[in-house]
Task: structure prediction
Amino acid sequence: MRISATDWVKGGWDIEQSIEFARRAKERGIDLIDVSSGALVPDAKVPVGKGFQVPFAKRIRAEAKIKTAAVGMITDVAQADEIVMEGDADLVMIGRELLRQPYFALRAQAEIDAKPSWPVHTVTRCSLAGSEADHRLRAALRAGLPIASGSRVSSPVPRSDPAGFPR
Ligand SMILES: Cc1cc2nc3c(=O)[nH]c(=O)nc-3n(C[C@H](O)[C@H](O)[C@H](O)COP(=O)(O)O)c2cc1C
Result:
């Protein structure tokens, strides 16, 4: 079940209510709370930043004793790994970074030296240009995967967001 853990406004829905809500949801058979926030009250000041909703997932997990998923500006492998390993959440859900980097999971596996869990031929076939492609190429190189001839790692260029979403 996805919830908005806080409205980010005084007098609005807040994390204490979310914890109580999660307790009751668990009693009624809900297995996991996917902890998002905001976008329900106009003019709310949301402190958007890296992992800004993770503390809510952490509190709900600890205090309502229910599994949680952390979402929101989780954009790199180490960050995602830390959230789970530190016990802040049971899993991480990623949205926009997967639009920016469709091979995020494959790259993550390469970064932690895990075996790729699905075929990698698309990595080697895609036309490699720009920094996102460089990530994929570097990951493929680290993972010892075959690389299409002529592929090169270029110098860093600013990352663009293909879907035009704010970062
Ligand atoms: C354009 C856009 C539309 C979204 N629409 C919804 C929505 O309708 N319902 C919802 O629960 N979350 C919605 N979200 C939030 C996403 O599900 C996700 O939690 C959010 O993008 C934060 O994760 P990310 O930083 O990994 O993308 C939306 C996000 C974006 C950028």
Remarks:
- The chain is about 40% helix and 10% strand.
- Residues 2, 36, 71-74, 94-97, 165 surround flavin mononucleotide (CB under 6 Å).
- The beta strands are 2-4, 32-36, 67-71, 91-93.
- The chain has two domains: 2-94, 101-167.
